[in-house]
Amino acid sequence: MQDGMVQLPVVNLQEPAQAPTRGGAAYKPSRFNHFHTLPTGEKLAFNSLSGGLAVLDSEGWARYTALAKGEPLDPKNPVDQGLVEGRFVVPENFDELAYLKTLHLRQRYTTEAWSLTICPTIDCNFGCDYCFQRHRVSRMTEAVQAKLLEVFAQKAPRLSKFFVTWFGGEPTLAWDVVQRLSQGFLEVAERNRVEYSASLITNGYLLDEGKVADMVRYRIHLVQITLDGDAPYHDQRRHLLTGEGSFERILANLRLFLGKPVFVHIRVNVDVRNREGVPALLKRLAEEGLAHQENLRVYFAPVTSTAPPSHGVKGFCFTRKDFARIEPEYFTLAESLGLATLPYPSLQLGGCVAAHPEGFVVEPDGTLQKCWDTVGAARVRRGQPPGIRSPATCGEPCLPALDVLGPLLRRARLLPLHLASCVHGGVSLEGGLPRGHARGEGGAGVHHLQVELEAYLYFASRTCGRGRAGTSPLHGLGKGGEEDAVGREAWTAYSS
What we know:
Blueprint: E1 5-7, E2 27-29, E3 33-37, E4 43-47, E5 53-56, H1 58-68, H2 78-85, E6 89-91, H3 96-108, E7 113-118, H4 142-155, E8 161-166, H5 175-192, E9 195-202, H6 209-217, E10 220-226, H7 231-237, H8 247-254, E11 263-270, H9 278-287, E12 296-302, H10 320-336, E13 360-362, E14 368-369, H11 398-401, H12 446-464, H13 485-495
Parallel strand pairs: 7-8, 7-13, 8-9, 9-10, 10-11, 11-12
Antiparallel strand pairs: 1-5, 2-6, 3-4, 4-5, 13-14
Helix pairs in contact: 4-5, 10-12, 12-13
């Protein structure tokens, strides 16, 4: 794109449209456009369906306005081409909601790919005060393992992809189960030409060279490990059951992944107690040689208290507004140290495991759950392994909360970014009854989630524009003085 449209390095067209070869067609503005005025006076344009991001100067903005008012498209004009490819304008008779719904439902109800979350154990060697699970000594029985392999073997001839997430508890406490099932899954996948891969959620304490070698062998391509700040902060909250600290050993274990074909996400859970320890953690990671590694990235998440075991930390949790203010600081520092790339809002279609009729969390005794947050909660279990073969096992209470294309959300400009959002708050854990909102904090509904995304996008747009305006990516963020109207509106609604 030249002249009126300047392409930014972060442009990421996920659902581009093809520009017509003939002129004269009538177009209309996309309902999924989001515009932000840069300090230069240019317009930063984002389309949440295509994922396209572009900068429009005065000429480009004038051309967009003309097309939005019905002026015929000129296929030879590079600005017109860019506006169409980025879906900033769409054909007059094109139903964007119907198109998005088709993409979403096709992804949710696909029968060619299958994902399972498997808990080899729900026991744990850590005593984290904010954990949402009720741990107990457990180990997946051989009978349950055999049933999982049997069901996969029955489904495999109709599958093209199979993905497993190893979860817990702490899955490394039952590593032999991971090994045995992984080997079985690989054998079935190879016989049926199914693409198999896996991920692992672990606290990282029991990792060693042998387990990392197993990950490569068993196609565990992604590992998540948590560090909650530098040692003094981390060891206060993520310690062994004996009270002994875990930071230094986990840090040493991270080096085991250097040069290995396994991608590592270092998750940093943040609340008011450890917020000051995050910068020190990032600097320590860089000092230890973990920066600028192709297979290692850091990201940040707010501590929440969604399930009863974690309710004791509710008073320490950030509001969404407060976390949105500090997260950019962390990402900016992490990026400068070579530990992260700045986040970019992208099209989310499939949703979490709860959104898929045959997506389940399998507990050690074979109990099926529809959500990671409900592992160990008998009152919301969905059945036993034979039910994996039947979409009906999902249970009716899940379905109302999963209607992300309901009347309220249809008005959201950022709806395509919301389709994979957590629906945990939309299904009551005390009986499976819909609460009427997809996620919330103190009863906040989907409208507030939309505002949350707008506030996030506002940060991203300022970050993407840095260098052009000569300002810091955090300049004026949330301070109420220099934001444009969109930013002020987002922050005002977000804090209400």
